[in-house]
């Protein structure tokens, strides 16, 4: 089902963070949300997960208003991976990943066969099998990030919203995670990720939403959006855009925009 | 050892301490008195049994509410005192004593606890965040503390003052069935509400935004926490006075054994709280001299150094 953002406006603590955002995110594709610090990327993703109040416009999953869905039903449809990777208690990684199934079984019921299968899938996808019994405080930042991603994947949501899932990951794991997210999209799920790395965005994204100061600067297929002119307008940097061996845009930042 | 085995061991410890609580005291009642026609039997039935049952349920709800609050606030230093329930219930009871409503101590304590919980809910329902909850609770605690001190200062006679101070120290002494039975429904319903928070507490391990995205209704959770704590802690303070440290220490002690997952700590903390209060109350009775050490005092005397040692050990682990 499409995730449609229709003339969305969000005001946080009296400051207008998002203005008149309109975009339709399609399932089966990876959409990268890019923009400078403070452009409203995280707020947009939170609004899509119904975590912030909307001042104007609407966000719809198919025909239904996301904010009006029952919270548990919404949790089954939309998985959200926050930027803040806090795990407040020193539980084993296994317990964190199992939380991803909470919206699927009745409260106080144990994990079902289906839950265990989904968890096993998520563990395999994130290569976290060796971490399961380790307390999270003993994990490195990157290992924690993979465990938290496994938590969201375990929920097998129709839509997966991830706020900077690559932060604190080494290049190999960045590539792994992006490949897993692409695989989820190829399997029919919708994937929207906030990214900072233009190279990874070019590698992974089918569509790109460029945000600047709370407005859409450009939205469309990656090859059409990731152009030197767009990136210069949004990030104020000069970027060399070529095509990689697979024909995807390869964006190499050169330096601050001059002139 | 499996979780079930650990729980069974803890339950066995509670049973053992319950039996010890029936036996121990200024007068030791041998187990043989339980089935002979020994007149000591009356001590057990009329004095020790209600007291032991009270110790059991008091310890259980204090341990449980401590575990729930620590999970809800994601802070191992939280306990019912932090959110101001204990001190406002104490304020109600003190008001009843000072103004001479002898029969109204329980009702006044419950009313005051309810009032402060309503105030807490009113102050925090918009934010639904842990920090706001702690701040509002701390304000309520200091406010009720100050009002209690004020009431003591205007007490009409020294006897009332002495009674208040005695009561504030918290004790199970001379509490009978008549004290216990009115509190039981509140304690039971409150404990049930607190147990219902378990799945949401686990989800909160990942923070408020993640928990909400997982389908947790933070407003409903907060209502459960506030109501559950208000009912259990309010009712227990209304019967026994202020007994601190149980809610703080017990989940802390059990975390290394049962793991840090908040929901996995609720039942163990209830059992552990019961064990701690039963043990401490039995020890109180054994103190030399004609009187008894007050339970609240004993708990602080045992609890504070113990807790300090625990913190120091944790810090050493962290630093070296």
Automatic annotation (TrEMBL), chain A:
List the Pfam families: ABC_tran (PF00005)
- Where in the numbering of this chain does the ABC transporter domain appear? 3-238
Q: Classify the source by domain of life.
A: Bacteria
Note the PROSITE patterns from the entry. Answer: ABC_TRANSPORTER_1 (PS00211), ABC_TRANSPORTER_2 (PS50893)
Q: Name one GO molecular function term.
A: ATP binding
Q: Which UniProt keywords apply?
A: ATP-binding, Nucleotide-binding, Translocase, Transport
InterPro entries referenced in this protein's UniProt entry, alphabetically:
AAA+_ATPase, ABC_transporter-like_ATP-bd, ABC_transporter-like_CS, P-loop_NTPase
Please indicate if the UniProt record lists Oxidoreductase as a keyword: no
PANTHER family assigned:
HEMIN IMPORT ATP-BINDING PROTEIN HMUV
- Main role? Part of the ABC transporter complex HmuTUV involved in hemin import. Responsible for energy coupling to the transport system.
Protein name per the record: Iron complex transport system ATP-binding protein
Q: What is the lineage of its organism?
A: Bacteria, Pseudomonadati, Pseudomonadota, Alphaproteobacteria, Sphingomonadales
Automatic annotation (TrEMBL), chain B:
Regarding the membrane, this protein is recorded as: Multi-pass membrane protein
Instruction: Tell me the SUPFAM superfamilies matching this sequence.
Output: ABC transporter involved in vitamin B12 uptake, BtuC
Recorded superkingdom: Bacteria
Q: Which UniProt keywords apply?
A: Cell membrane, Membrane, Transmembrane, Transmembrane helix, Transport
Q: Which GO terms describe its cellular component?
A: plasma membrane
Major location, coarse class?
A: membrane
Task: Extract one GO BP annotation from the record.
Answer: siderophore-iron import into cell
Q: Which residues cross the membrane?
A: 49-69, 130-154, 183-204, 224-250, 262-283, 295-312
Q: Where in the cell is it found?
A: Cell membrane
- MF GO annotations: transmembrane transporter activity
Matches recorded under PANTHER family: ABC TRANSPORTER PERMEASE PROTEIN MJ0876-RELATED (PTHR30472:SF25), FERRIC ENTEROBACTIN TRANSPORT SYSTEM PERMEASE PROTEIN (PTHR30472)
| Family the UniProt entry places it in | Belongs to the binding-protein-dependent transport system permease family. FecCD subfamily.
Identify this protein by name: Iron complex transport system permease protein
**Species the sequence originates in:** Hephaestia caeni
